[in-house]
């Protein structure tokens, strides 16, 4: 970040301090800091430099090695899909606010990036998708092409850098941040894998606990926030995403005084309130985001929860955009 800011004549140290970070933070790559502070620093840098694509440009200065030990763990997975799944599974060791998921629909795979913290994160989302795309190309080869690159950010006036990095298949104002590819890309053999090294990586994986130290309820809640809309958010599905059995997950949540269904209800409540308070998104879309099969199912749940229909609640509590 410092080098990129300097190219625009901006002192990155000032921006980092404004975001509540020490100006020397970039010289301490293994130090864990608040993701919200990092996101704020990126937004301030983009604004100060007058560079709406600051995050995208910053991603070009980062490589596969920025993932640290995770890059070593993924390198020897047998297929491209296995390598990307390994990165997603152990990403909490590197960044526990970024959730990467794969959703398969027949011959199409959707690789989603979700930063599950509050606050503006336009630049951070650009970095996440750009790094994910670079990793995909790193494994699948330079001829790999995405069917679609999806960015939730508004389209900037100048998209030349986005075309340069991602190619022509770009969608701005998308419902999610991520990449759409053919499943055949993920089925390709990993050309850089060395089968002889894989047992050593597996041994290291067993010693590493993704999200170590984070309560089970917090890890479940983070996944629910990003996976609700796929309507497969059962306890078994979430347990699989966490790499444990459903029984293990149930016991862990009970030890923390909660249950999967309670967390599901809490997460839906928070997301519903946020969308109803903050804008005019149609109720049908909110229902879909919360994983309900229909708007009427959402309205029935909401009425039971808030003692009034969602439209009435929005009139009383919502803020007109």
What does this structure look like?
By secondary structure, this protein is of the alpha+beta class. It has 3 domains: 2-51; 64-187, no CATH class; 216-317, Arc Repressor Mutant, subunit A, CATH 1.10.10.60. Helix content is 53%, strand content 8%. It has 17 helices and 5 strands. The protein has helices at 2-7, 12-18, 35-49, 54-59, 69-75, 80-90, 122-140, 160-166, 183-187, 198-207, 216-227, 235-242, 246-255, 260-278, 283-289, 295-306, 310-317; strands at 98-105, 108-115, 148-150, 170-171, 177-182. Strands 1-2-5-3-4 form a 5-stranded mixed β-sheet, with helices on both faces. Helix 5 (69-75) runs antiparallel to helix 6. The chain is globular, with a radius of gyration of 21 Å. Mean pLDDT is 82; it is low at 205-211.
Top keywords for this entry?
alpha+beta; Arc Repressor Mutant, subunit A; single chain
Brief account:
By secondary structure, the chain is α+β, with helices and mostly antiparallel strands. It has helices at about 1-5, 10-20, 35-50, 55-60, 70-75, 80-90, 120-140, 160-165, 185, 200-205, 215-225, 235-240, 245-255, 260-280, 285-290, 295-305, 310-315, and strands at about 100-105, 110-115, 150, 170, 175-180. α2 packs across α3, α12 crosses α13 (about 245-255) and α15 (about 285-290) crosses α16.
In helices, the fraction of residues equals 40-55%
Strand order of the largest sheet: 1-2-5-3-4
- Tally of separate domains: 3
What does the radius of gyration come to? 21 Å
C-alpha geometry: globular
Q: Low-confidence stretches at least 5 residues in length (pLDDT < 50)?
A: 205-211
Strand and helix order: HHHHHHEEHEHEEHHHHHHHHH
Number of strands: 5
Describe the sheet with the most strands: 5 strands, mixed
So how many helices? 17
Q: State the secondary-structure class.
A: alpha+beta
Strand content: 5-15%
Mean pLDDT: 82
Please give the alpha-carbon distance between the first and last residues. 34 Å
């Amino acid at each position: 970040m410092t080098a990129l800011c300097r190219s625009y004549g901006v002192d990155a140290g000032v921006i980092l301090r404004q975001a509540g970070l020490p100006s020397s933070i970039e010289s301490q790559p293994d130090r864990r800091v608040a993701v919200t502070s990092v996101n704020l620093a990126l937004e301030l840098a983009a604004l100060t430099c007058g560079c709406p694509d600051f995050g995208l440009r910053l991603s070009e200065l980062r490589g596969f090695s920025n993932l640290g030990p995770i890059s070593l763990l993924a390198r020897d997975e047998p297929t491209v899909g296995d390598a990307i799944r390994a990165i997603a599974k152990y990403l909490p060791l590197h960044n526990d606010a970024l959730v990467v998921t794969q959703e398969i629909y027949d011959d199409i795979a959707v690789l989603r990036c979700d930063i599950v913290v509050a606050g503006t994160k336009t630049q951070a989302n650009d970095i996440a998708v750009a790094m994910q795309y670079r990793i995909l190309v790193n494994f699948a080869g330079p001829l790999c092409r995405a069917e679609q690159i999806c960015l939730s950010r508004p389209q900037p006036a100048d998209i030349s850098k986005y075309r340069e990095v991602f190619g022509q298949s770009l969608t701005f104002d998308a419902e999610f941040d991520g990449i759409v590819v053919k499943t055949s890309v993920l089925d390709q053999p990993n050309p850089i894998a060395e089968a002889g090294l894989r047992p050593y990586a597996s041994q290291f994986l067993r010693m590493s606990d993704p999200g170590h130290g984070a309560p089970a309820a917090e890890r479940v809640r983070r996944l629910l926030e990003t996976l609700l809309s796929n309507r497969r958010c059962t306890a078994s599905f979430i347990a699989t995403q966490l790499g444990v059995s459903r029984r293990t997950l149930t016991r862990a949540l009970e030890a923390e005084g909660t249950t999967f269904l309670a967390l599901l209800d809490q997460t839906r409540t928070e997301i519903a309130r946020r969308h109803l308070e903050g804008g005019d998104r149609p109720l049908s879309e909110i229902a879909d985001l919360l994983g309900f099969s229909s708007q009427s199912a959402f309205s029935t749940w909401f009425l039971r929860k808030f003692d009034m229909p969602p439209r009435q609640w929005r009139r009383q509590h919502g803020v007109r955009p």
